[in-house]
Amino acid sequence: KTVRIYLETDDNGQVLFRNFVSGRIMIFLCSHEVKGYLGDYNCYCDFKIYGGSSSSKPTTYGVIRPSTNTVYNSDNCSVYFQKSPACGIYYCNVYGGASTSGYSALKVTEDCMCRIEECNFYSAYTFVNASSLSQVFCNKTTGMATDYAFKSYTGSTVHLANTSQANGKKGNAYWNNGSVIFGSLSQTIVGNYNITWDSSTSVENNTT
Fold first, then answer.
1. Per-residue pLDDT reduced to its tens digit, 34-62
2. Which of 54, 45, 183 is CA-nearest to residue 112?
3. CA 50 and chain centroid, separation
4. What angle do CA 167, 10, 126 make, to 5 degrees?
5. Which of 8, 16, 110, 166 is the most exposed place for a label (fewest CB within 10 A)?
6. What is the pTM of this model?
7. DSSP for 107-165?
8. What angle do CA 172, 32, 62 make, to 5 degrees?
9. Mean pLDDT in the chain?
C-alpha cells in the first residue's frame, strides 16, 4: 500500500516514521517548511520526500530547516534514512543543524538505497553522509559545506552524476572504507569526469 502525506502549512515539529516493514510512504512538502528533522527509522519500505505537491519539479522548493537542538538523535542530521531499500529526497532546500564538526544535512545508513535529486544544501559540516553498506546517487546538488560535501564510510558508495554538485571548504568528497564514484566508474578510474563543483565562497547561516 502507498501512503501519501501532503503538508498544508509549515510544520514546527519533528517528523520521524518508525518500524514500517512494507509499502510506500510519500511525503509532499508542497513548498512548505519543516522546522525540525525529517526521516525514517528502521523502515523496510519505500520512503520518498518531495519538495512540491507531486513528484514533478515545483516552482518553489520545500524546506527542511531544524534548529541546532532538533537535529535527529546523536546522528546530528536534518534528514535521516535508515534501512530503506528505496528512499529519496527531491527538490528540497535542506539546512544542517550547525556548521560545526559532526553535523550532516542528510544521513543515509544501514543498507539504504537513496536518490538525491536537485537539492540545495546549507549550513552544515557535511551535506551527505553515507555509512553501513548504503548506496547514494546524487544528481544536481548545490552548497558549500564547512568540511567535505560528501562522505562515504563502512562499505558505502556515493555516486555523483556528471552534473552540478555541492562542494566543501576542505574538498568535494571524502571516503574511509567506502567509495565515491565521480561520473561513471571508468571516468573515476581515469579521472576524466565532467562534474561542475559549486564554487560558492561562503556557508549560509541557519537563521531559525
1. 998 899 988 999 999 999 999 999 999 99
2. 45
3. 12
4. 20
5. 8
6. 0.93
7. EEESS-EEEEEEEEEES-SEEEEEESS-EEEEEEEE-EESSEEEEEETT-EEEE-SSEE
8. 25
9. 90
